[in-house]
Amino acid sequence: MTEAVPAELWPDLLTLWDYHRMRHEPRRTDIGIGLGGHDIGVARCAADLYRNGLFPRIVFTGANAPTTIERFPRGEAVHFREEAVKLGVPGEAILLETRATNTGENIAFTRELLAELGIEVRSVTLISRPYQERRAYATCRRLWPEVEVVCASQPVSLAEYLRAIGDADRVINMIVGDTQRIIEYPGRGFAIPQEVPTEVLAAYRRLVAAGYTRRLIG
């Protein structure tokens, strides 16, 4: 699958991939939150962390986006739950939030659900796609500032991830789009600011110039 990425763009793509991964050390938290999307690996990562005793419950959150309706017709959270149960997570340890259509709603609606159920949360593990970690962190710190946040995703390389997803063009567009959101969302009140190193900004601009613009916001 790496052959689908132009060789001259590979270093820039790696720069963004490395930037978005927070590299938090796993530690025990009050709950795991699996963020919906096109990558069933989120559910697998959540199941692994649960089996390792890092949290007592998982919330899978996500309705559908145009890019996931065909893959997960019953909703992202529902399919993620089914995958986690197959991997040994007890059904009673999983909560579902089935309305969210973006990362902000994932966080806000999960927070509402837990409050409604009377579940006290002081720390969370956010489980996401590897290149979504930084945006998930920045979003949660903005919308739920009182909780401690640990980010997690499958421990795979960029090449392994591209092979697993099987659609390099989609992944590159998503990584470029997430980078733009790190830059733009603090000004819109959606996330806390994150430092964007010069080399990251340059790599992002070159990938935009190369035509990876499908996930950019106006």
Number of helical segments? 8
Shape: globular
Number of strands: 5
Q: Please report the distance between the alpha carbons of the first and last residues.
A: 30 Å
| Biggest sheet record | 5 strands, parallel
Protein structure class: alpha/beta
Provide the CATH architecture of the largest domain.
3-Layer(aba) Sandwich
Mean pLDDT: 95
Helical percent range?
A: 40-55%
- With strands numbered from the N-terminus, the spatial order across the biggest sheet is 3-2-1-4-5
CATH level 1 name of the largest domain: Alpha Beta
| Oligomeric state of the chains present here | single chain
Per DSSP, what share of the residues sits in E-state strands of 2 or more residues? 5-15%
**CATH homologous superfamily assignment of the largest domain:** HUPs
Provide the gyration radius in Å. Answer: 17 Å
Task: Write the H/E string, N to C.
Answer: HEHEHEHEHEHHH
Compute the number of structural domains: 2
* Annotated CATH topology of the largest domain: Rossmann fold
Domain DUF218: 43-149
Pfam families: DUF218
Protein name: DUF218 domain-containing protein
InterPro entries: Cell_Envelope_Assoc, DUF218, Rossmann-like_a/b/a_fold
